[in-house]
Design a protein that fits this description.
seven-stranded mixed sheet, 12 strands, about 20% strand, globular
Length: about 300
Amino acid sequence: MFSVVVAVGPGPHEVERTLDLIQQIDRFEQSSIGEFLIVNDTKDMGRWNEILSRYPFVRILESVRQGQGDSWRGGMAVNILGGIDSAFRHKPISFILKVDTDSFILRSFSHEIGDAFEQDSSLGTIGSCFRNDLDGKLVPPSTWQVNLRKYLKLFRLRRNPFPHLETALWGRHRLIRTLIHQAVAHGWPLGSCAQGGGYAVSRRAFDFWTKNGFCEDPLLWLNTDLGEDVILSLLTYAAGLEIADLNQPGQPFGVIYQNLAVPPFELKRRNYAIVHSLKSKSWNEEEEVRRILSHLE
């Protein structure tokens, strides 16, 4: 059994995208889903109430960041980590699937991911484009390295919200610096991550984080300028675990950062289960892509 965690909003069409994902999970994973957890960063509770009444496996968790921080970077990480914590504590599941609202599910996948975690106890996260892209080529060094090196300094000058000296001698900054050092010591290629459009986190990773206090402070990452997928990959390696790409044809994750890697019919031919990203220049274009993917057999 597994659960899905998705952070929703703020932004237009987020409820429509999420409803698509719920319907896809209901279609392909009805017998394996523990719950579909929505971390709600919108104010559209009327629509949620309607969805909750139709799909009993859906649960709503109100935004952990409560309007603080950046909704894409530190704030997103706070919401996703809060959702992962809540989902693992709520159900006896073996892993979490985290997806974005602009992801799409084409077939069942839970047994493949569950088997991969069971067969390799070193894995904490499974996803796409950590080391290899969808064509099997090595991904280039991460552009997040510049941001992360700032957090490795004991002292640094910050300009926002006003010029000030920031130290990593105590508090949140000290813990963040320690976690980055720990991840690198365990072999983390600084900044490399499983792409955030879709990845799975094992219970063994969560259990380690809980035992070692990695997530005791729910707002630890709130004011950072780091992506949520980078932080999850950092935490995986800080726990002494590893990340695997399952993103080749016939494997679950056809996930890249922006757009779709190949046209919809080719995604289907390659037999991916989870693809990202459907976001287009307009909602009409995105709806058309969704229509095409929905009718692929």
